[in-house]
Amino acid sequence: MIEIRDIDKWYGTTQVLRACSTSVAKGEVVVVCGPSGSGKSTLIKCVNGLEPFQNGEITVDGVPVGDRGTNLSKLRARIGMVFQNFELYPHMTVTANICLAQEKVLGRSKAEAEAKAAGLLSRVGLSEHARKHPGQLSGGQQQRVAIARALAMDPIAMLFDEPTSALDPEMINEVLEVMVELAQEGMTMMVVTHEMGFARKVADRVVFMDKGEIVEDAEKDAFFGTPRSDRAQQFLSKILHHI
Amino acid sequence: MQYNWNWGVLLQEPYLGWLISGVGWTIAVASAAWVIAFTLGSVVGVARTLPNRWARGVATAYVELLRNVPLLVQLFIWYFVVPELLPDDWGRWVKRDLPLPEYTTAVIGLGFYTASRVAEQVRSGIESISRGQSMAGYASGLTTLQLYRYVLLPVAFRVIVPPLTSEFLTIFKNSSLALTIGVLELTAQSRQITEYTFQGFEAFTAATVMYVVITLTVTAGMSLVERRARIPGFIAKGG
What we know:
The structure holds 2 protein chains of 2 kinds.
Chain A: E1 2-11, E2 14-24, E3 29-33, H1 40-47, E4 55-60, E5 63-64, H2 72-77, E6 79-82, H3 94-104, H4 110-123, H5 139-151, E7 157-161, H6 169-184, E8 189-192, H7 196-202, E9 205-210, E10 213-219, H8 220-225, H9 230-240
Parallel strand pairs in A: 3-8, 3-9, 6-7, 7-8
Antiparallel strand pairs in A: 1-2, 1-4, 4-5, 9-10
Helix pairs in contact in A: 3-4, 3-5, 4-5, 5-6
Chain B: H1 15-47, H2 53-68, H3 71-85, H4 88-96, H5 101-127, H6 131-139, H7 144-159, H8 161-174, H9 186-197, H10 200-228
C-alpha cells in the first residue's frame, strides 16, 4: 500500500532523512518510533506530500507521491492524517469540521456528509458534542474528532503523527482506544508514537529511527524481544523503564 | 484675546448646509475608498502569503511602494501626474469627461494607499495561524484556493478586526486630505465657513464633533462585527 524507497531529504544543508526505506502493506499497522529529531514526523509527512523530499520514491496505492504529474489533492483525499496538535478548524463546529472536505473535495451533498459525520461521531463517542466548537472540547475529545474527520473521507490508509503527544496523560487512553479499534478492523496504519503499549498491542512491525536513518525495521515481537541495534536497545530501555 | 463667540452661525444658512454637505462628502470619500482598500488589500495581503514567488514579489512591491510615499504626495500624483502619463485619448477623457474628477481621484488615491496598509494586516492575520492548519487542510485534499477560502481567511479576518477598525477610522481622518485637490468635504467646508464668517473656533469645533461622531459610530459598528464573529472557546494562538 505504502512503499518508501531510499528517501533523502535536506533542510538547506542539513540532511534530515538518509536513505529511508520501508513499506506498509494493506491492513498492516506499522509503528514508527525514535528519539525526537530523528526524522520520524518528517518521514510520515513525506508520505502524503506535505513535506517535499529530494531523492527517492514514495508510492501510495501505486501512485508516485513525488511526481510532478501526480494530482496531490486527489491522492491526499484518500489518505487520512491525524496531527499532534489536532488541527481542527477553530471557527467551525465539530460537524462542519468533519463535513468540509467531504463536501468540497469528494463532492458529497450536505445531507450525505452530515449523516456520515453523525455516524462517526457516535463511533468515537462524541455525538452530544456535534454542535460545539473545537475550543469547547478537551484535547482528547478534539483528537477523536480529528480521527473522525480523517475517517469521513473513507481513506485507504491512515497516518498518525504523534497523536497523543500533546495530550494530558488521562486523555491518552481514550484516543488510543479508538486507534486500537481501527487497527483491529483492518485499517492500514502508519503511526509515529512513543506509546509502546499501543505498539505491543496492535503493531505488526516497528520501525526505529535515529538521526534521520531507519536503524531497525522488524516484526513487533522481534523488535521488543531482541532489538539488534544498540541504539534501539538504549531507546527501549529508557522508554520502557522510566518510573 | 478678543473673540466674539457666535455658535448660532452654525445653524444659519448657507453654513449649516455646507457642514451637512461636508459630512456627506467625507462619508462618501471614505466609504468608497474603504471598499477599494478592503478588497484590493485583501487580495494583496493573501498574495504576500502564497507559495508562488511571483505573486509574493508583485504584492510586496505594491505594499512597499504605496505605504512608503506620503499620502498627500500620492494624491497629487494621481491628480496632476497620472492623467499626463496616460495615452493621449485616455488622458483627455480623464481631464475632460471623468465624472466628479476630484472625488474620483481622492477615492482612488486614498483607497490604493490604504489597501497597502490593509494588506499588511491581512498578511499578519494569515501568518498568525499555525502551519499545522494549512497542513491539515492540504492533507484532506483541499486545494490552495479552498484552503484560504474555508480555513485560513475566516480565522485571519476574525483575528484582525481590531487593527482593521483602526484602518477604517484612519481612512475617515485621512479623507480630509482630499480638500487639497478640491473635494469640499468636512474640513474644506469648515475652512470655508471660517473664511466667510471669521468664526473659526465654531466651525472647527463643529468639524471636530462631526469627525468624532462618525468615528465612534464606526467603532461601535466594528465591535458589533467583532462580537458577532467571535468563535466559542477560541483563543488566537501565536505561530
